[in-house]
Hints:
Blueprint (H helix, E strand, L loop, with lengths): L5 H20 L4 H23 L3 H20 L5 H25 L2 H17 L8 H22 L5 H22 L7 H20 L2 H19 L2 H18 L2 H15 L8 H24 L6 H17 L4 H22 L8 H17 L3 H25 L4 H20 L4 H23 L7 H5 L1 H20 L2 H20 L3 H17 L3 H21 L4 H25 L3 H16 L8 H18 L3 H26 L5 H35 L3 H19 L5 H26 L2 H15 L5 H26 L2 H21 L2 H25 L3 H24 L3 H28 L7
Helix pairs in contact: 1-2, 2-3, 3-4, 4-5, 5-6, 5-7, 6-7, 7-8, 7-9, 8-9, 9-10, 9-11, 10-11, 11-12, 11-13, 12-13, 13-14, 13-15, 14-15, 15-16, 15-17, 16-17, 17-18, 17-20, 18-20, 20-21, 20-22, 21-22, 22-23, 23-24, 24-25, 25-26, 26-27, 27-28, 28-29, 29-30, 30-31, 31-32, 32-33, 33-34, ...
Amino acid sequence: MKEEDFEKAGEIYERMGYCFFRAALQAKTSRHFKGRMKLAVKSYERTVELFRKVAEDVNEAKISHSKALVNFANLWIEKAFSKRSLLLDEWWTLERETLRAHEKNGDFLAIGKVCNDMMQGCHDQRIWYAKDWFEFANIAEECFYLGDKAIEALSKVEDVYELARAYCWASWYYGFFALFGGYQNIRDEFPKKSLEYSRKAVTLSEKTGDDHLIGWSYNSASLAALVFEGNHKLALQFNEETRKHSLLTKDNALIGVGIGWAGSICSLVQVEEDPDKQKETLIKADEWAQNSIRHYEMASWHILTPISYRIRAGMLVGLASIEISPEVKRALLEKAITSGRVLLKHIRGRKGLMDHYVFDGLSHALCDLAKTETEIISKRLILKEALGFRKKAIMDLKRVLPTFYPTLSSNYNLLALIQIELSKIALHPKRELDLVNDAVSSMEISIKFIERVSKEHYAGWKSGLFGEFFYLFGKILSYQFAQTKDRKILKRAIGAFIRSVEIFGNTGLTSHAAESYWQIGKLLDLLGENLEAAHNYDLAAKTYDLAAKKIPQLKDFYKTHSFYMQAWSQIEQARYNHSIEEYEKAMQNYQNSAKLHGSTDHWSYLASNYVAWAYMEEAEGLSRKEKTQPAKQKFQKAFEQFCNAEESFKLKLEEITSADEKDMLQKLFKASDLRRKYCQARIFLEEAKLMDRKGKFLQSSKKYGEAAQNISAIVGKLDVEAERKELEYVLILCRAWEKMAEAEATTSSESYLEAAKLFEQAKEHCYTKKASLWTLGNSSFCKGLAAKNKFQSTFDKSYHSMANKHVEQAADYYRRAGFQVASEYAKATQRLLDGYVYMNSAQEEIDPEKKTKYYQMAEQLLQIAAGLFTKAMQPEKTSEIQRILVAVREEKALAASLNEVMHAPVITL
């Protein structure tokens, strides 16, 4: 120029600096990026020199702004964290000075542009370097102020481009602060402003045709849709526009944010039910995360790489979780761990806002890697490293974003997972329990945090993600119950699963809801609430049916699960019917369960087990009806079937890879083994009854003792309280019958009384009124027999009265309990006892006429007793009475003959 125009030249150099700055962000290598950014710095420095040559009163704002640009460009290439902090502070101070100068001049367009530059610059650099929560919150507040000021100033001038920028960045800060700052810190107007501003930004930016601005505007719209509407599908649609326009700009920062944010939204894939879509999304999100990191690296924008790394780690962990091959699974997890260790070098010595994501991702991948490790020492070392990174992530997160509740909740959730995995390999029971308790505490904190997140907006509620958190809480509480046997914990676990059902149901995640119903059913079974358990298994079955319709490619899989749940519903109904002594119904339930198991490919091996249970229920019913021989035969069949089931279990255990299914099968194996031994004991018991009826009392007593010994050996091994009490009840009965048979053999009144006490003790273990009445009947009957023995040895009629009273009481108890055979037996015994009284009276009587009458009464009573014993299916007793009757009739005939002789007329010769 002939005439130097420093102001014009400064403006040209400023535009040159801007071009180099944009070109740097378009660079394909970090070397080119740094070279171009250095050119931008030089251009901005030349701008400062030129503006200084212009009168200060005219160029105060331009000089401070140019200095700010020098600092801002240097930020992108400065490596030292301490120097970056100084540059950030200087840049912010200079831009504030620029803003004050424009406000002084009343230049609305310039005010709006500087506010926009400050907001975008804060997004690019400053906010990510917040050292703690207070600094983060202060930066956010400043940007809210700048956004409102920019919109107010630019609304007074006609500049569509800058107004669109103002709406774009103002919206972004409202959404960003709500996401990371916590909902309790936002004000009522935030959702409305963010959503309204983002839509305006999109509309206005599209009018400008500037792809760079359009891309950032859709980015803000995507954030607002996710945070304030909880609509991750709409957020992904907006994000697709960001990605499309970012590729046109070739701006690495915009491309990195666009595809990185897409990966972040897709992290919700973990609640996707369609496995094909899940895998496709995981692969795509992993690819996006890798590309995002690559673009960040090209722009030396390392501060954001932790976010994309965490997304990538999550996607690789997700892919590993659905991978069948152990080798591929480990390779995916090791890839996530390797990239995380590399990233650790970048964050060493700095305190970035998002650095906690590196520890988070590493911990997650290490935890899952430990699950694939079979060697205990290696597993423990990996888990301890995972635990260390998890604690660092939580500590770092609490420092910078203590109200970022969703991520805090996720971190405590994963901390609980590590603690549970460590508990499984703990060396001592106390350490195991401590770790389980720690896991419960971690989950309590996790749940507390997500309860603070708005259900109206946050995607975690809308997508069903938080249902997974409650599901895990329920599982961990189940572990705690297994250690403590505290029934209150079971109720808490059921409550957690109910919450998961609600969330999964509200979001249409049918298969997840079915799994929760399944868990509720299992826990209700442990509480002994069989009908409620059956109801929840039915709900699980119906929900699996819905899942089969919803996901056609998994139709067979979910149908099989539906049959399996129906089978378990039948099992629970069987247990309930067993508890109320409806043995035929229980038998039918077990038969139905066996058929349902048999109709599935996966669980058909369990059918034989439930056939055995059906036989056992049939045997119980026959035994209670005093059909002893058939009962013994059915117990024998049950015993053989349990043996077959155990063979099937052994073969299946070698095939199963699922830890949960293997655990379930091992429990069934144990239960089957215990029931097999129980059937053996019941066979002894029924044999003892048969011997008792044949009058082989000593052999009977011995058999009862063997049955008691066998039952005693398995009682303590039962986990379910109801089953344990039932066997304790049978055990006491065996011992009582043992004493009773011994009393029959030895005519010992003391043994009868001991049996009576044992029957009274058995009453404490009865669940039904029927069983209680039956045991009371047995107790009374033994007392009656004890009194009978004493009467027969002393002929003291007071013992006869006592015996009559107890035996009559026993007959009444048996009748009320529905044991007609036992009632008839008691009545028969009572008539037999009365018969003995008349026999004794006849023997003591001198008068032949009275003697004859007594024998006649005894005969009648013994005939009644014989008939009743026949009804009571006691042929041995009937035969015994018949033998006594022969003797009574002979004695009666002799007495009658003597009476005739004594009363014959005297013949006088």
